[in-house]
Amino acid sequence: MKEKLIILLALFFTNCFAIDLQKANTYNDEIHEIKNWYMSEKLDGIRAYWNGKELLSKNGNKIYAPKWFTKNFPIFELDGELYTKRADFENIQSIVLDKIPSREWKQITYNIFEVPNTKGVFLQRLEKIKSWNKLHKNKYIKIIPQIKCENKIKMNRYLEKLINQKAEGLILKNPDLEYFSGRSSNILKVKNFNDAEAKVIEINYKNNKFKSLVLKMSNNVVFNLGNGFTKEEKINHPKINDIVTFKYYGLTKNLKPKFASFLRIRKKE
Fold first, then answer.
1. What is the CATH number of domain 22-190?
2. Rounded Cα gap, residues 79 and 100, in angstroms
3. What is the CATH number that goes with domain 194-265?
4. Where are the domains of the chain?
5. Which residues are catalytic?
6. Separation between Cα atoms, residue 229 and residue 247, nearest integer Å
7. pTM score, two decimals?
8. 106-143 residues labelled b (16+ CB within 10 A) or e (exposed)
9. What are the 10-residue block averages of pLDDT along the chain, 269 residues in total?
């Protein structure tokens, strides 16, 4: 009875402190009408929520940023991406998720795409942090540029430009709404591939050399992943129970990812 009570209390407090942030759906050209929405580059960094006192991950875990990094941050909430540059996720992850903050944080900037729980439509909310930053000039806070999307042709041209520059993709957002939280089709992510996570349940070898991973997805679909590994990653490959991120291009009739390719190991927060 005592053990059950402890578990229930743990679940209660976990739910109490969970962060309900905005979450994007995936763009579908046949469904979504995005004329006059705003578009911005989708940064491949670590999402972080500033609650007015400290930085938290999207799962509500504390991010151990140095005090000098968050010094003079505003007392109001922010939502953004901790980031360095394109194609640098592993470096960002190693810096941001380290519980002992290092001088490497000097590479990081906090790139804002939303001001949670602030009155007004999207651009009015962003104006709050823009005005604040003009007065305080915090060099670690950046506001992600927003571009008006006149039509789908302009969006596709912008996406192609970003992909050619090794960006991950773009985000589309309905600018006419008051702040809301949760998953919504009023925020859309656009990429030239899909990505997902899965757990390593087995490792295949051939002639004592790494061949592939056997992965299990959250929907219990199991498949082999052998593409996308560098020579170094084949030597220091993921281990059993590691969570890996992979990219793919659609699903088979058996719901297995097509042309799946390894991206990275998810570091534990």
1. 3.30.470.30
2. 23
3. 2.40.50.140
4. 22-190, 194-265
5. 42
6. 12
7. 0.77
8. eebbbbbbbbbebeeebeebbebbeebbeeeebebbbb
9. 43 53 91 95 96 95 96 96 94 95 97 97 98 93 96 91 89 97 95 90 94 96 94 94 91 88 87
